[in-house]
Design goal:
The structure is a homodimer.
Chain A: H1 10-17, H2 21-29, H3 36-49, H4 55-62, E1 67-72, H5 81-93, E2 97-102, H6 107-119, E3 124-128, H7 134-142, E4 147-150, E5 161-163, H8 166-179, E6 185-190, H9 196-211, E7 219-224, H10 228-239, E8 247-250, H11 253-265, E9 275-277, E10 294-296, H12 299-316, E11 323-324, E12 328-330
Parallel strand pairs in A: 1-2, 1-3, 3-4, 4-5, 5-11, 6-7, 6-8, 8-9
Antiparallel strand pairs in A: 10-12
Helix pairs in contact in A: 1-2, 1-3, 5-12, 8-9, 10-11
The structure holds a DNA duplex.
Chain lengths: 339, 339
Amino acid sequence: MNEARSIPTLDDVAKSAGVSTATVSRCLNFPDRVAKRTRDRVNGAIDKLGYVPNFGARAMAAKRTFTIGAIIPTMENAIFARGLQAFQEELHERGYTLLVSSSAYQPQIEQEQIRALVARGADGLLLIGYDRDPSVYAYLERQNIPVLVAWAFSKQDPQTAIGFDNCASMTRLAQKVLDLGHRRIGVISGMNKGNDRAQQRLQGIKDAIASNGLPAESLNIIETTYEIESGAVAFDQVMDVDAVPTAVMCGNDVLAVGALQRARERGLRVPDDVSITGFDDIELARIVTPTLTTVHVPHREMGRKAAVALVEMVENGGAGASLELQSSLRIRESLGPAK
Amino acid sequence: MNEARSIPTLDDVAKSAGVSTATVSRCLNFPDRVAKRTRDRVNGAIDKLGYVPNFGARAMAAKRTFTIGAIIPTMENAIFARGLQAFQEELHERGYTLLVSSSAYQPQIEQEQIRALVARGADGLLLIGYDRDPSVYAYLERQNIPVLVAWAFSKQDPQTAIGFDNCASMTRLAQKVLDLGHRRIGVISGMNKGNDRAQQRLQGIKDAIASNGLPAESLNIIETTYEIESGAVAFDQVMDVDAVPTAVMCGNDVLAVGALQRARERGLRVPDDVSITGFDDIELARIVTPTLTTVHVPHREMGRKAAVALVEMVENGGAGASLELQSSLRIRESLGPAK
DNA sequence: ATTCGTACTGTAAGCGCTTACATTGATTCC
DNA sequence: GGAATCAATGTAAGCGCTTACAGTACGAAT
């Protein structure tokens, strides 16, 4: 009766249709180079057997996979979600499949993921931020895998990037805070190690302080992980000092939301008792009470343009052109004048 | 001088180390079956050349990839993030890599993603919910790919699943709402088509109504997409009727947050003027004001157990055992007695 | 009728890896 | 001392696909 039915191969299709494997392959890849009659016969066999090409074999023989890999620091909050969604949509339109991994903000895991993706034949990679071991870039170059850096932009670094200037953006926001009369500012930054976005944002605040001729001591800086609860804990730390800050600037919206929550728990009114700011302008920023003053980042645009650029790099082998996008301030309820 | 340097293969390593390809392969896969001296020589060559195994070739020859694929309806909000993170962590511990795709709630795209992942050699698949074309399951069975359904559990369906009873969970919440005296209830459901979770949750509310001997007209049901803004729009629709509801039950927390927001914009106090409930208990539920009454789902536990179960299915080829987890109510500020 | 060109199709050589099986020495045992 | 055993390594046959190259048949041009 039935053989132990294993999954059909191109060979099976060829036999069933009474043609050579080459013809079947051509049917799949260049239908117009095959006579209509033959093609119909082959397609019939394909349907009958439920044949699906083996991707690994195809990739090995053709040296292309139409797969793009992306490694983001986290899926747990929405920071990268929107941009990535746009990235995927654009890729899909161009016939590419996106595979995503998350590194939990750990360089070690990111490296593993990069290797995993490259080994699986990714034609190109999207990475968040510049800051990683040079050996990683060396490896990627040796493997000839185009890499696009996103969510950051700097003239210093050699990698092709599509992003925005984290430092300058934060400086603008900090200037606004200073303009409102705040002179003692708590800063809740993300972990700086291996995260240039966090570094740049922090630097942006320092720059504003310096260019306004204020002392570095105006700032009380805490570094913590990007979680709501961490933001809450850090808020306590930043407030439990002698010179209580009148404003707390956070490294992103997630931290800011944590701070906002803790402020409420402590019975503080925002912004009357203390102002709080975020960064990224994720959906959350407009949902919390009070709504959050933050830096708006054009996530979807960044995702789309990154897709276009990366595909272009993959297909034409060039280094691709970097592109700087503009962020903008979103002044909302959580920021007010210093009391 | 330098040849156009292409990426090194196992063969290059073998030559460079002066051994056969078999020995190199063994070095990689079963180091203890190779003499220490030889092994060192081979590893030296590997480092020198910067060799990395070609995944496609390896998969093709070994028929294993140690890759698990997951397709979730969306990355845009945090519904699946936490569970998936746990899923990934557990997989990582067991030596598997997770590749994620999102289908944007579109069955068509989900099918493509499934094929893409299978073609790329995924050893197993995690899918959300049961409801999909039978041909998909047939295809997966033919390809011999173990599939685990998550985020849902039903005794009816044949697929192995790790999840919870969406219907019964929602019934419990609805009962609570009824107990508080609500008799006119607005329902903001997710789109039911191709989404058994949405269907089950809606059914859960209907069941509660029926078992309390109340007329079906107590309910005013709106179907919409799972976005905050959709929740807001639907809230308007559900409130702009003659018999204004005293409670609005939402298909998930995202919709509920939208409703909450719009309620505030309309000047309604929650829960004094209207109660609002959600489902999932994502982080957001505790952050909004007022905090959201919802159904807590053990996301992390579900993720971990799903990983264990799926790996077991992949490695032992069995159908695996389904597992029902328990949800629980989280009564918070947004639910109060009917006025 | 011969010669080409054209349009299809087939042949077979890889792509980079794993693994069953064969081979080779060295060691052990009686 | 020779047979048996064993650890280490090599040989080579695929895995499923693509593609350069080589036919083959047939109508058109000469």
